[in-house]
């Protein structure tokens, strides 16, 4: 599923607001700007190293119902599902579409 143009515009505007307004004003709970607080923690921030399980950290999750005929279509594929799951929600974990 591709994001539509409205979602993209909203995302762009939100990102712009976070970077120009939110991060650059002092917060009463921090007593400083969030960007400055982040900078204080740079020495303890660790990057994720490449390993076999990295891709599982960022999977999307979708919930779908099983149809009355015990099939479920997902990404143009039909899946035959056990009848015990009729009308129950199934969770799919999948990669980002891009």
Describe what you observe in this structure.
The chain has helices at residues 5-20, 34-40, 54-57; strands spanning 60-65, 71-74, 77-80, 89-94. It is of the alpha+beta class and 98 residues long. It has two domains: 1-46, no CATH class; 50-98, no CATH class. Strands 1-4 form a two-stranded antiparallel sheet. A hairpin with a 2-residue loop joins strand 2 and strand 3. The longest helix has 16 residues, at 5-20. It starts with a helix and ends with a strand. The mean pLDDT is 76.
By helix and strand content, what is the structural category? Answer: alpha+beta
**Overall structural domain count:** 2
Say how many strands there are: 4
The main sheet orders its strands as 1-4
Helical proportion, percent range: 25-40%
User: Secondary-structure element order, as H and E?
Assistant: HHHEEEE
Low-confidence stretches: none
Distance between the termini: 9 Å
Shape: elongated
User: Strand share of the residues?
Assistant: 15-25%
**Number of helical segments?**
3
Mean pLDDT metric? 76
Biggest sheet architecture: 2 strands, antiparallel
Q: Taking Cα atoms only, what radius of gyration do you get, to the nearest Å?
A: 21 Å
Which terms summarize this structure?
alpha+beta; 4 strands; two-stranded antiparallel sheet; 3 helices; two-stranded antiparallel ribbon; 2 domains; 98 residues
